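As described in the Methods, two query proteins were run sequentially through the folding procedure within a single session, without resetting any intermediate state between them. The first query and its resulting structure tokens are shown here.
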Amino acid sequence: WIDRRWKDAIEKHLRDETLEEHLEDVLDELCNQLPEREYARISKAIQAESTAAREREEAAQTWSAYRVL
């Protein structure tokens, strides 16, 4: 979504971090400014979705055992 020339120029000025790292920090700060209830509600939903996805992946796993003589 950003031309590589813009990205490269910005990263030169950031020095010790990439544009992606910098934007993650900015987004973290913005998330932390949300009202506590909203932040907690969203965090809980994300965690529940993550847990459900992990459980689906585990349920879909197939295990095999072989005995070699």
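Immediately afterward, the second query was submitted; its sequence and tokens are:
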Amino acid sequence: MTLNCNGKILDFKIPKVMGILNLTPDSFHDGGKYQSIKLAIKRCHEMLNQGADIIDIGAVSSRPGPNIISEKEEFDRLIPVLRTLVKEFNSAIFSIDTYRSQIAKASIDEGASIINDITAGKFDSNMLPLVGKHNTIYVAMHMRGDPHKMQKNPIYKDIGSELLSFFSDKIKSCQLNKVHNVIIDPGFGFGKEINQNFEILKNLEIFQELNVPILVGFSRKSMIYKSLKIQPVDALNGTSVLNTVALLKKANILRVHDVKEAKESIELCRKLV
């Protein structure tokens, strides 16, 4: 599988690393660290030097129970930084973590190649038509409910089958809106209890039948630190373990805070091929 990112080709014969750049004050692991343009440039440079294939920039926290900010505040946090980063790193591939179509449009206009939507178009009905119009790569993530309520007793009869059906329908919706470059994300930690997250990982191969790239995001999440009774700051080893399991189960993209370790997981797993 390959995807064209504004003339830059992503070839998934080798799994890719998506480095996380949070511009938020309240993200669960690195909130407030990279809010200035200077610090964002430094962090982006670090991740690209470590081998990040994609930089995923977010200006709104999606942790459980976040404060919802206005579209203007999201724009003001994001666009000046994105504009600078695109100029500074003109060969890099930038993804924007947003569920608002107007933010997506502004980001595409500034040079973003990927829209990463945690609501898979549910929040903003204009998102899919916009992405289709601009022929942009689209990450559709599964989330039960919204960030305020998603962790309140999420119930599934058969979580694997339900997610497979969700993505099958979502891919059809994307195609109807001329969105042909789709990546799916099972949404670990989004409307799932810990045991449900591990059930999805255990059966991750089932999503291969959809014939689209699979993105996974475990990085320092509660399924790791709550299982091990540690803090997010100590969850790097657990993240690497789950990334490795996901790679063995044919994940194509690792979305991470720690790029170097993710690249090492990929290189070691490739020795088994």
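The longest helix spans residues 71-88. We note this only descriptively and draw no conclusion about the first query from it.
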